[in-house]
Amino acid sequence: AMELWQVPLSFSRLRMFPFFDLAHYIASILALKEQRGVVEVSVRSPLACWFSAMLYCFGGSVLSSLMLGEPPVAFLAKTINILLASSVWYLVFYCPEDIVYRCFSFLPLHLLVAGMKEVTRTWKITDGIAHADIVYKDAWLIMVVVGWARGAGGGLISNFEQLVRGVWKPETNELLHMSYPVKATLIGAVLFTLQHRQYLPIARHNLVFLYTIFLVVFKVKMMLTRCATSPLAPFEAAMGQMLFGSQKTPSKVKGEGATSSNYSSVCDQPSEHHHEGAKKKQGKKTE
Amino acid sequence: AMELWQVPLSFSRLRMFPFFDLAHYIASILALKEQRGVVEVSVRSPLACWFSAMLYCFGGSVLSSLMLGEPPVAFLAKTINILLASSVWYLVFYCPEDIVYRCFSFLPLHLLVAGMKEVTRTWKITDGIAHADIVYKDAWLIMVVVGWARGAGGGLISNFEQLVRGVWKPETNELLHMSYPVKATLIGAVLFTLQHRQYLPIARHNLVFLYTIFLVVFKVKMMLTRCATSPLAPFEAAMGQMLFGSQKTPSKVKGEGATSSNYSSVCDQPSEHHHEGAKKKQGKKTE
Amino acid sequence: AMELWQVPLSFSRLRMFPFFDLAHYIASILALKEQRGVVEVSVRSPLACWFSAMLYCFGGSVLSSLMLGEPPVAFLAKTINILLASSVWYLVFYCPEDIVYRCFSFLPLHLLVAGMKEVTRTWKITDGIAHADIVYKDAWLIMVVVGWARGAGGGLISNFEQLVRGVWKPETNELLHMSYPVKATLIGAVLFTLQHRQYLPIARHNLVFLYTIFLVVFKVKMMLTRCATSPLAPFEAAMGQMLFGSQKTPSKVKGEGATSSNYSSVCDQPSEHHHEGAKKKQGKKTE
């Protein structure tokens, strides 16, 4: 019988293919379908829609390849993964009566898929860091950046992914207004880089286990409570004040900043209006 | 004497340099000059105009290099081709009294140049596929994508080419609203990839011959009839309905989709108004 | 004692690290802080501000790496330079009471820093050319382009640098409306490429010396006189008329072109209004 202390080790040896990868594709393409205007694009130009879906699913791979001067089309060489993701795309967008989409919008199933997607995030971060370490020996900043790009690529390139669908929102991007998954991925990339360089007194499989638990728990919690409050908000506020002297008093960030302020602090209220708002945010946060 | 069955073989051994390449440069730069606002750019900033012209001529090379992680400036190493294209650019844009531009706008000459440009397309597609096959052994999706990018690069990067000239149209791109040359190139890339992997019961030189004939004939026909109806429209409609269940009834695509619907189905009517419209489309379609 | 003829040789052996590099970072980040809206970005999202600052400091490296198909994140491997630039960024943006920014806005200090920054430009151009020559043996056009990109990268990618800060100005770019530093860098790249290929009857260290003197003198002169007149304007006008037949008579370039015309010819008048205008231009010209 497996003992408790062996759980993290076994967990860190989990293989992502095919089930976790599949969950990642499903969660990503569901998030894409929730974007405004995507359904029209899927009717007008299936190819643009497919390309958008591939950027949602493989954006991390594309971005980290670009950063390391490697072929950004490399992900197309994994034929089976592409077929899997394309099947999901086809079923989610073109299934008669939207059966597949409705089916996965059923909360327990949605939770399962979203939780499994978060597991793949940890694997991608560590993959990215290991790969960067091979290309640039001991350049810790490159390790952080590539790990981050690999884990949160779909979010970071969202401006250009939207451009494929004919949408252009230059006034915002994931560096200006970081969403929770992108922030959590950045923290993960820093932690795993520190661990990789042996600055952290923790074994790799334990960190993998704890970080994944953290990701999954907060993801599920945010989906259940429909609350967009980032669990990182207090730390951010403290660090922001300490390092950059920014005191986000309500009176200060009234005009332009108001949306970004609400963005990470408003919880769901029992009213129809807020309900929809939170739902939209949820869609966006799924990355 | 050469017999008839030898024609395709000899044809497939044609060398593109210098005459066909030259025709490609002329046709591309004529198409650039027909874009709105380019003449002002050519006066204000010859360098931006030159760079735009180079992207029109070598866009396929730039895009496929980017995709394969190779230097996108590689095309600048072919000094003679650059000099040729630059001379064409200079003569088309700055020749006194626009002699060169007017000369090539003379229909028979324009037809010749446009037809020869289509021949280079076949060569580029097969070059791209062969190159992708060397970099990624047997990754058929990469072969299709790189062949497509190489053959229709100028069109696919048009958003960024326009940005060089200070024009930004995020609401459209060649994936959302594919023009006929880009579609034909995609089909060619698929066919040549299938042939390369020996799934098609046809010899390479025969496919080269037939596909080029197809490209040239429809290009010339579209220019002569000033009709923008894509010869692929019926197949597209059938496939769209079969795969994606899209039934483009006139009532459905009234609002936003109307332009894209007209785009590929309106023929020239003997009226001044339509005449100009078709002319503009012609310009755009030349890619 | 060092004799006069030895000065250029010793000068060309100057090491950029750490003092000249530091001056480059300071001048670049001061220029960034003068951009409209940056201070708000620095409060709202320090990370976007930091990334913008890095693009200002290392834009040339990023752009030339992209052009040569090398990892654009390579600059992050120079940990000490990144730490230096990040410290400058932190002090300029977040120092209490803006002490550091005010301190370097003191004219003599600003002149010193700006002059030293121009020295690094020469070194970057020659580095870029030497690197391109290794990758592409004897491709003079690639040498010019990479040398130019390396020396004026921050300016050339300014559209995308602005995008990081949520600003998008597609109607202009450094190819359409070249600023003086970008032009001077282009001329330098051409000269050093000619020298590298031994078409110029001048020793390398002499060219380095003379070109740097030229850069520094005109930079200081433009800052002292607050005059945006490019010293290259007469040559440009002559070449423009000779090659492209453009006669920029005032009546011709009235509408849209007016700004670009003023851009490179208006000097400071003793009036409050012009004073501010020139100041803004100064900020922009610093690249």
UniProtKB/TrEMBL annotation, chains A, B, C:
The alphabetical list of record keywords is: Endoplasmic reticulum, Ion channel, Ion transport, Membrane, Potassium, Potassium channel, Potassium transport, Transmembrane, Transmembrane helix, Transport
Biased composition annotated in UniProt, kind: Polar residues: 258-268
Compartments annotated for it: namely: Endoplasmic reticulum membrane
Extract the InterPro entries matched here. TRIC_channel
Q: Where are the transmembrane segments?
A: 50-68, 75-93, 206-224
Q: Which GO terms describe its cellular component?
A: endoplasmic reticulum membrane
The UniProt entry lists membrane topology as: Multi-pass membrane protein
Start-end of Basic residues biased regions: 276-287
Q: Which reaction does it catalyse?
A: K(+)(in) = K(+)(out)
A GO molecular function assigned to this protein is:
identical protein binding
Residue segments, region Disordered: 247-287
Provide the family line.
Answer: Belongs to the TMEM38 family.
Role description: Intracellular monovalent cation channel required for maintenance of rapid intracellular calcium release. Acts as a potassium counter-ion channel that functions in synchronization with calcium release from intracellular stores. Activated by increased cytosolic Ca(2+) levels.
SUBUNIT field? Homotrimer; conformation seems to be controled by binding to diacylglycerol (DAG).
From the Swiss-Prot or TrEMBL record, give the protein name.
T38BA protein
Source organism: Erythrocercus mccallii
